[in-house]
């Protein structure tokens, strides 16, 4: 089939499928063209009808260019230049503008006026005029760039007077201009600089005195400046995932300034061997993410009483949960111990966790259903999937059976060893369901369980 037919089909489709250009949209973006082996479609809201299966490969490149208005938001994909404005958006009908893919050169007066949120994702930008954001200078609240090839903070941000959120991620920023940072620091509340080629802690951040939330994840920082937050008034969230941190002393000193404000702390995917001591002094901390570290031990005196969520996922040096692992009258509601090497949980370890709703023990090295569970009375979710050493002996321990049966609704998932049957079935009420009743062949007997226990103890001691 020839290109001509594609053109015809495209044109028809455009005519039929074009969303009735919402009165509010200030752009005119329509058309679909074939040039050489490339088919470019604009503003389709469905695929054109297939009139050839393209067996001979005459069309090799297919690109959809589209701008969609929904409510106050305009999303443009694959543009190879800014479309012509048909309205300057004076009444602010479009507040959110997003560009996804494509190639842009942003000159002055090319964007609609009065924007609040501006986002560039996966776009290649040849230039941004220093006046480009003038027409939204007082309205722009949030600015994002992700996977954009642009080596610096745009000068155009110097004209913006009330930006509260900035989100730059997956960019190679080599030029951090002090003048722009100073301007931004006066108004920003939320800062995301993820994977932007920072190679040490950015000293300029201490002048962002109003920030509530800072995310510097995925940069090779290694350490925090000791006075990083000395001027910051109200830091509530700090994300430092995958930043090559390992020095607890450094963290203890630097985070001392925020112990009375911090609510969320994420220091996952780093090299900590112990929970940094400063954490125990944080009076508002509610969520702590320590997953993917090298934590060897949890001790109750490092866990603040009011902490609600603790994530220790994939700390492969963690083997034991002891009686003193959690503080008395702990507020923990969600605890993730998945993918650790935990093989034993002491009987009284969970006694302080009267508020625990969700417990993740999946992919651990437990070799029995821990009796410690019988101390938990408010669970809603218990995950024990993928535990390849989990034996379910017969007869069952009455305490476990009683405990499980006291629950009306508990989402319990996981299987006994060799995936013979589910833990739910093992602990079930009905005598016909439980593999431990009658002459079930599936059950693993007590002597085998004891044998495994013995082996594990010898092996681990
Ligand atoms: C913009 O929105 C205002 C109020 O929401 C409305 O009165 C006006 O007609 C809209 N303008 C256009 C061009 O649709
Ligand atoms: C939008 O573009 C199409 C095709 O290029 C044209 O026919 C139409 O008049 C334009 N509409 C406006 C409002 O400019
Ligand atoms: C702008 O983005 C923020 C978060 O990115 C969102 O909460 C807000 O609703 C957006 N503003 C508008 C007007 O849609
Ligand atoms: C961007 O567009 C402006 C105005 O249209 C032009 O003067 C400038 O040369 C362009 N820059 C690039 C890098 O293409
Ligand atoms: C943009 O704003 C700056 C500062 O107010 C001003 O100096 C400049 O002339 C403006 N540019 C345009 C094109 O309006
Ligand atoms: C920042 O941008 C990234 C990539 O677009 C997105 O996944 C993330 O949710 C954004 N974060 C905030 C706080 O807006
Ligand atoms: C970032 O850009 C600099 C200078 O252009 C270059 O030397 C460096 O390799 C780049 N880094 C990455 C991660 O692309
Ligand atoms: C600190 O910021 C939070 C928002 O993150 C806000 O709810 C709280 O009121 C602020 N506290 C003070 C003392 O300003
Ligand atoms: C850890 O940080 C402290 C305080 O910043 C510093 O004195 C010490 O030398 C650091 N230790 C290592 C091994 O880097
Ligand atoms: C275990 O459960 C947690 C919580 O749902 C989940 O994040 C994690 O991916 C699971 N672990 C594995 C190895 O599937
Ligand atoms: C098990 O049986 C007891 C009484 O026989 C009942 O109260 C309880 O709800 C049952 N539990 C389940 C999980 O069926
Ligand atoms: C239908 C049609 O135009 N087919 C052409 C596809 O491309 C090959 C090679 O370029 C031509 O030989 C066919 O005529």
From TrEMBL:
InterPro entries registered for this protein in UniProt: Leu-rich_rpt (IPR001611), LRR_5 (IPR026906), LRR_dom_sf (IPR032675), LRR_TM_domain-containing (IPR050541)
Key words, A-Z: Leucine-rich repeat, Membrane, Repeat, Signal, Transmembrane, Transmembrane helix
Record protein name field: Uncharacterized protein
Database matches in SUPFAM superfamilies: L domain-like (SSF52058)
Species for this entry: Candidula unifasciata
Highest rank taxon of the organism: Eukaryota
A GO-annotated cellular component: plasma membrane
TM spans (from-to): 442-460
Record has Repeat as a keyword: yes
Signal sequence annotation: 1-23
